[in-house]
């Protein structure tokens, strides 16, 4: 069975000098400070998974399966390809 730590608050994160790993630091409910260190390859998995976790938590907290997670688009940009796509007949 996996060891479980009841986290009270995330405190900060770090990035290794070569960017290959990133520790996420937190304070456990026991008051102890500790961290989990992940390989940078896990970052994409976290980015893709955390929004789904947030939606599920939100829906369970409020007992409403219609709730959605909404975020502002102020940092979203649309980019074009460097060269246009051409279609031949």
Determine the structural class based on helices, strands and strand pairing: alpha+beta
Q: Would you list the SSEs in sequence order as H and E?
A: EEEH
Q: What average pLDDT do the residues reach?
A: 88
**Overall number of structural domains:** 2
Which strand order spans the largest sheet, edge to edge or round the barrel?
Answer: 1-2-3
What is the 3D form? Answer: flat
Please indicate the percent range of residues in DSSP E strands (runs of 2 or more): 15-25%
State the major sheet.
3 strands, antiparallel
Helix % is: 10-25%
Number of helices: 1
Question: How far is it from the N-terminal to the C-terminal residue, by CA?
Answer: 60 Å
Low-confidence stretches: none
What does this structure look like?
- With 89 residues, the chain is α+β, with helices and mostly antiparallel strands.
- It folds into two domains: 1-39, no CATH class; 41-70, no CATH class.
- The protein has one helix at residues 42-62; strands at 7-13, 21-28, 33-39.
- The chain has a three-stranded antiparallel β-sheet, with no helix packed on it.
């Amino acid at each position: 069975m996996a060891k479980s730590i009841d986290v009270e608050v995330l405190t900060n994160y770090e990035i290794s000098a070569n960017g290959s790993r990133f520790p996420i630091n937190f304070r456990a409910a026991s008051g102890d400070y500790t961290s989990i260190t992940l390989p940078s390859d896990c970052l994409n998995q976290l980015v893709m998974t955390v929004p789904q976790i947030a939606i599920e938590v939100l829906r369970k907290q409020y007992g409403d399966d219609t709730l959605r997670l909404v975020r502002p688009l102020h940092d979203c940009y649309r980019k074009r390809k460097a060269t246009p796509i051409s279609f031949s007949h």
